[in-house]
């Protein structure tokens, strides 16, 4: 259901504990890494017999993996030359051992200080073993030149990066300021956090996660702080039973709509149905009821006074009615009038059932920051970057440039579960952080967020925890967006297409 996504520091700790506490030699891990890398290379490229291969080996463990790979590639009939960044005598530990073994086996080893990079021959394959996930900061000029050389030669060669493309930040997935553009990346034991970031895909190419022998006990005793949501989470959908009925499938209440924005509440209600709710009711002022239903008799209504405006007088009747429902979605299209905002300010902290706060409900949260400390325990917030910027009193650029930092900052001020929407949606609470594997352009359409809110509302109403409901809803939503690529390869789908796709992808 969740795959660990260690940060570079956490991965280095796994290595350290495995070697120092368990006693598995570093050389054993390095040999496993090189053999798994060869397997990945052969799987994607095919036979290397007779192929000209250049390996760029750095001074750390990444370079050691490169030296070890060179030995194996020679035995497979390839013509391998290793260009190393330091004089041989400066290499240490397992990396030095692998250099010396390669030397004894007559692998050509050339110190880059003696090479004009512009005269390098064009290879068939490039092995990028220059910098590992421990790299941080900006590339020094000499390494930047090497990265550019690999990318130049890589235009006519197959590029294979060991652990991570050199120059890519293992935490954020961004180039510093440039990175190797690989066809394949073999990373070890677990994908490092930066490798699954949307920005990293341009550089990683096909990603292979290769086991190298880090014991599961080490991973469990030192858990990663981030996790990747996988398809296995779909197996945790509440099961169907022969005796189930509408009242056992969850009753979702949608509190939303304002003049001209009733479609948002309608979409949230319809997505609640399509994700399995037995009953869905829309709470709204009387004048908006027919528009929310939009000729959909399945959507029931809870009339909250006459006219078409929300006000504080509706708070107590709505609170009393909550015992009828299993979860409530607050905010889709509800508007930003002063009366509506006062209604939300009074209602939100008193909500007694699982709550999804979306859209203009989040606008109220930004207007009344004291609500952050008064959110009910089972609350899920679903902001897009603009809404998140408003809540944290910053700008969208700051949010998007540091989405991980944004998520962490929020957990420091609220116990609620946060769904920070966007490419690679982040789901977090003070205890854990999970990442969606999806970056789907087909979801970038008006109403998509209302649909996600309705889905999470349904899952909360089926007694899933806020974190579980949010992760499952985010993955399911992404899965539907991915499936829409087939019928809408250049986009063009509407939000209603996302809703109708939800039941179809459950069994795919």
What does this structure look like?
Homotetramer. Its cofactor is K(+); Mg(2+). This is Bifunctional NAD(P)H-hydrate repair enzyme. AMP binds at residues 421-425, 449. Keywords: ATP-binding, Isomerase, Lyase, Metal-binding, Multifunctional enzyme, NAD, NADP, Nucleotide-binding, Potassium. With 508 residues, the chain is of the alpha/beta class. The protein folds into two domains: 21-224, 3-Layer(aba) Sandwich (Rossmann fold); 249-505, Ribokinase (UDP-N-acetylmuramoyl-L-alanine:D-glutamate ligase, 3-Layer(aba) Sandwich). Helix content is 39%, strand content 15%. It has 18 helices and 18 strands. An eleven-stranded mixed β-sheet has the order 1-9-18-17-16-15-14-13-10-11-12, with helices on both faces. Strands 4-3-2-5-6-7-8 form a seven-stranded parallel β-sheet, with helices on both faces. Strand 11, helix 9 and strand 12 (300-303) form a beta-alpha-beta unit. The radius of gyration is 27 Å and the shape is elongated. The two termini are 16 Å apart. The model has no long low-confidence stretch (mean pLDDT 96).
């Amino acid at each position: 259901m969740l795959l660990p996504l260690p940060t570079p520091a956490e991965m280095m700790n796994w290595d350290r504990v495995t070697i120092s506490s368990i006693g598995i030699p570093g050389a054993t891990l390095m040999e496993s890494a090189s053999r798994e890398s060869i397997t990945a290379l052969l799987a994607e490229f095919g036979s290397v017999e007779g192929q000209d291969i250049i390996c760029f080996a750095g001074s750390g463990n990444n370079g050691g993996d490169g030296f070890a790979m060179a030995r194996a590639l020679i035995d497979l009939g390839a013509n391998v030359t290793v260009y190393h960044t330091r004089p041989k005598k400066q290499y240490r530990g397992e990396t030095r051992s692998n250099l010396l073994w390669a030397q004894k086996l007559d692998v050509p080893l050339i110190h880059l200080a003696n090479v004009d990079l512009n005269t390098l021959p064009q290879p068939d394959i490039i092995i990028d073993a220059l910098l590992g996930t421990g790299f941080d900061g900006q590339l020094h000029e000499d390494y930047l030149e090497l990265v550019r050389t690999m990318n130049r030669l890589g235009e006519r060669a197959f590029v294979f990066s060991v652990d991570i493309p050199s120059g890519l930040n293992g935490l954020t997935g961004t180039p510093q300021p440039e990175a190797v553009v690989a066809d394949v990346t073999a990373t070890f034991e677990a994908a490092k956090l930066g490798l699954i970031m949307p920005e990293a895909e341009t550089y990683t190419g096909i990603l292979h996660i290769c086991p190298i022998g880090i014991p599961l006990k080490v991973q469990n005793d030192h858990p990663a702080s981030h996790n990747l949501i996988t398809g296995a989470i779909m197996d945790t959908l509440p099961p169907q039973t022969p005796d189930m009925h509408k009242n056992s499938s969850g009753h979702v209440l949608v509190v939303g709509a304002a003049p001209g924005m009733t479609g948002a509440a309608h979409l949230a209600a319809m997505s609640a149905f399509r994700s399995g709710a037995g009953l869905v009711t829309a709470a709204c002022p009387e004048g908006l009821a027919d528009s929310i239903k939009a000729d959909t008799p399945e959507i029931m209504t809870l009339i909250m006074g006459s006219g078409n405006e929300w006000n504080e007088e509706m708070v107590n009747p709505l609170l009393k009615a909550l015992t009828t429902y299993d979860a409530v979605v607050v905010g889709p299209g509800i508007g930003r009038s002063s009366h509506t905002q006062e209604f939300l300010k009074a209602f939100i902290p008193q909500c007694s059932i699982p709550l999804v706060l979306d859209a203009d409900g989040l606008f109220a949260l930004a207007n009344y920051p004291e609500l952050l400390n008064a959110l009910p325990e089972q609350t899920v917030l679903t902001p897009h970057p603009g809404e998140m910027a408003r809540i944290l009193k910053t700008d969208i650029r700051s949010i998007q440039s540091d989405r991980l930092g944004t998520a962490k900052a929020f957990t420091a001020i609220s116990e609620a579960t946060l769904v920070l929407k966007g490419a690679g949606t982040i789901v977090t609470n003070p205890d854990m952080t999970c990442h969606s594997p999806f970056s789907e352009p087909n979801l970038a359409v008006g109403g998509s967020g209302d649909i996600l809110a309705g889905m999470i509302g349904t899952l909360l109403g089926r007694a899933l925890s806020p974190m579980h409901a949010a992760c499952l809803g985010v993955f399911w939503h992404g899965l539907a967006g991915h499936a829409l690529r087939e019928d809408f390869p250049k986009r063009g789908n509407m939000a209603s297409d996302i809703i109708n796709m939800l039941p179809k992808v459950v069994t795919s």
